[in-house]
Amino acid sequence: MTPEIRWTFEVDAAGIAQLARGGGMAAVETVQPGEYLVTLPMPLSWACGVRAAVDGGFITATPGDDAGNKPARLRVLTLTPDDDFGPGDFTLVVSHALSPGC
């Protein structure tokens, strides 16, 4: 089994995200409801095996420089169950044994 680090973020009625549970400190900035910038406590690359999940919707998470962000930052976009861009709770999982740089 590949070791993982997991962070769960909850979004309130106003669309503002906050860290609910995590495998270490992480900061989240709400750009707008449905668009979040998450800064994790380690730099990431595609080799780290980042996965994202959201209940009842869709999520994309683009790590670091591939999104024009700092290496420890992810841009997270969520869709509502109606396929509209909007807020939703989300979880990020990093499989940190896939690469020595993770």
**Total separate domains:** 1
Query: What profile does the largest beta sheet have?
Result: 4 strands, antiparallel
Q: Indicate the overall shape.
A: globular
Task: Give the DSSP E fraction (strand runs of 2 or more residues).
Answer: over 45%
Indicate the percent of residues in helices.
under 10%
Give keywords.
mainly beta; globular; 102 residues
Structure explained in plain terms:
There is one protein chain. The protein has 102 residues and is mainly β. Helix content is 0%, strand content 48%. The protein is built from no helices and 8 strands. It has a 4-stranded antiparallel beta sheet with strand order 2-1-8-5, with no helix packed on it. The chain has a 4-stranded antiparallel beta sheet with strand order 3-4-7-6, with no helix packed on it. The mean pLDDT is 75.
How is the secondary structure organized here?
Layout: E1 4-11, E2 17-22, E3 27-32, E4 35-39, E5 50-54, E6 58-63, E7 73-79, E8 90-95
Antiparallel strand pairs: 1-2, 1-8, 3-4, 4-7, 5-8, 6-7
Short description:
This protein is mainly β and 102 residues long. It is built from no helices and eight strands. The chain has one domain.
